């Protein structure tokens, strides 16, 4: 089974998500931005979600993680939890 590793951050609004995405694109460290802003418990690890397979995350998340280019910030991705930025760090 294909496995991926990814990191993400979770915020309440699309606007905040876009603002943080621009900070990361401008050179801010993804992990630092996640630690400071994400409401997900993974923020303590800089948003690192570890390794997982298809179907282990919500559908909207899976669609991005298993199709997006590696090491590029994706999002905002809306789920029932809020708005995410995602970065796929490996897949194979």
Automatic annotation (TrEMBL):
Its main location: cytoplasm. InterPro entries: PPIase_dom_sf (IPR046357), PPIase_PpiC (IPR000297), PPIase_PpiC_CS (IPR023058), PpiC/parvulin_rotamase (IPR052204). Pfam families: Rotamase_3. Residues 1-90 form the PpiC domain. SUPFAM superfamilies: FKBP-like. GO terms for cellular component: cytoplasm. The keyword Cell cycle does not apply. It is found in: Cytoplasm. Keywords: Cytoplasm, Isomerase, Rotamase. Belongs to the PpiC/parvulin rotamase family. PPIases accelerate the folding of proteins. It prefers amino acid residues with hydrophobic side chains like leucine and phenylalanine in the P1 position of the peptides substrates. This is Peptidyl-prolyl cis-trans isomerase C. It comes from Shewanella piezotolerans (strain WP3 / JCM 13877). The lineage of its organism: Bacteria, Pseudomonadati, Pseudomonadota, Gammaproteobacteria, Alteromonadales.
């Amino acid at each position: 089974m294909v496995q991926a590793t990814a990191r993400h951050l979770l915020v309440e609004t699309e606007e905040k998500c876009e603002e943080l995405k621009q900070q990361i694109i401008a050179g801010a460290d993804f992990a630092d931005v996640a630690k400071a802003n994400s409401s997900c418990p993974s923020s303590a690890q800089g948003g690192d979600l570890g390794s997982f397979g298809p179907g282990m995350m919500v559908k909207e998340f899976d669609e991005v993680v298993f199709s997006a280019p590696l090491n590029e910030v994706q999002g905002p991705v809306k789920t029932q939890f809020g708005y995410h930025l995602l970065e796929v760090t490996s897949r194979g």
